[in-house]
Amino acid sequence: MADLSTTFTGIRFPNPFLLASAPPTESDSNILRAFDAGWGGVVTKTIGLHPVVNVKGPKTKFLRADNGGARLSMNKRPDTTLVASWNWELISDKTIDWWIPRLEKIKKAFPDRILIASIMAGSGNDKELRNWQALTTACQDVGVDGFELNFSCPHMDRIDMGSNVGKDKVLCSVVTIAVKEVAKVPVWVKPTPATANIVEEAEASFRGGADAVSSSNTFPSLPPIDPNTLDFEMNVEGYVSSGGLGGPAILPLSLAKMAQMTMAFPEKSFSGIGGVSNFDHALCYFLLGCGTVQVCTAAMLDSAIGPNVIKALTSGMSEFMEKRGYASLEDFRGIRRDRVVAHSQIKRPEQIEYHGGYDGAEEHEGYAKPAEQPVTV
Ligand SMILES: Cc1cc2nc3c(=O)[nH]c(=O)nc-3n(C[C@H](O)[C@H](O)[C@H](O)COP(=O)(O)O)c2cc1C
């Protein structure tokens, strides 16, 4: 049996697979079941101090494509394949007082599994920054192994929270600094993927002292409109609002965000999230340089906490390592990061002279040579 254990941000994981912050980690009973099933770690559903009231009606639905057809719909029907999850669920509606004794109980029951607390507060004034610190202190006092700062929930009522923090580089730094001031354990940041260049927000978070960046949260999106009723397939009394897309559809989108960051910061730590349901998907993140991988949608659809998903991830990783003779994740982490290059560096047909889209390389004195141009994904 290959050794799947790994050290990430100084924390020893029995395997590099975590349940992401979401319904699979919304309660102690779920998390205990997840550890029983073999997950190396979990990131709790995001815990906050402000009042949370979810919308009337379902919070998550799943978008499926007809097998062999083009229809995409959230309506349940046979012979379909999962494309994505869509949700407008807010952070945990349980209070910090509800969470604290449960975090302690979970850590005592599974001391060797990794418990990361996802936290969120407001920003922009000292009172809100103190709320981040209060959440940090309360959770670490009962033994959590680390934190993930939610700068990425795409559907917030408040302008000073969630992806609104992740869209503001200064706030990314300021909030991370505030948490790091009191944190005695590693702090990961989960920025929003909905910015022009996630490298900038990652840089700001690292500058604030972040030990790792986790990406991606769900992508802002709308559900499709039912052609018969002319209603959005998910709505409350006819109305819809932007929500988050997760699952298979976002794997390539999230890989692009991750590649940008791991190339910009090859020495930093990254946790890959988005569209993972088996080891082949997780491998993409590892090959780009991630040290852990997180799963949400696939686990939700597998008995709510993913017992079969974690089995497939660990057995897939063991088989892969044995087949290739790898002793640890470090042997293959990041080995395909250098294959992502500027478009101009992709080979053109031999017989045609090519100067990176310019008439002739020498005619552009003062401009960077094509090979020196930034790689954008
Ligand atoms: C219903 C639902 C609730 C979520 N709640 C949170 C949350 O509270 N905090 C957070 O950081 N991410 C939250 N997420 C995002 C997931 O942690 C994850 O980043 C995203 O779903 C992409 O992973 P996936 O493709 O495996 O689903 C939520 C996702 C879903 C589907």
How does this model look, in words?
The protein has ten helices and 15 strands. With 377 residues, the protein is of the alpha/beta class. It has an eight-stranded parallel barrel with strand order 3-4-8-9-10-11-14-15, surrounded by eight helices. Strands 6-5-7-13-12 form a five-stranded antiparallel sheet, with no helix packed on it. The longest helix has 18 residues, at 307-324. The chain is globular. The mean pLDDT is 96. It binds flavin mononucleotide.
List segments where confidence is low: pLDDT < 50 over at least 5 consecutive residues: none
Strand order of the largest sheet: 3-4-8-9-10-11-14-15
Categorize the overall geometry.
globular
Determine the strand fraction and express it as a percent band. 15-25%
Number of helices: 10
Radius of gyration: 21 Å
Note the run of SSEs as H and E: EEEHEEEEHEHEHHEHEEEHEHEHH
For the report, how would you describe the main beta sheet?
A: 8 strands, parallel, barrel
**Mean pLDDT over all positions:** 96
- Cα(first) to Cα(last) distance is 37 Å
Percentage of residues in helical conformation: 25-40%
Please give the number of β-strands. Answer: 15
Structural class: alpha/beta
| Bound molecule types | flavin mononucleotide
Q: How are the secondary structure elements laid out?
A:
Layout: E1 6-8, E2 11-13, E3 17-19, H1 28-37, E4 41-43, E5 60-66, E6 72-73, E7 80-87, H2 96-109, E8 114-119, H3 126-141, E9 146-151, H4 163-166, H5 169-182, E10 187-191, H6 198-207, E11 212-215, E12 219-221, E13 243-246, H7 251-264, E14 269-273, H8 279-288, E15 292-295, H9 297-300, H10 307-324
Parallel strand pairs: 3-4, 3-15, 4-8, 8-9, 9-10, 10-11, 11-14, 14-15
Antiparallel strand pairs: 1-2, 5-6, 5-7, 7-13, 12-13
Helix pairs in contact: 3-5, 5-6, 7-8, 8-10
Bound molecules: flavin mononucleotide.
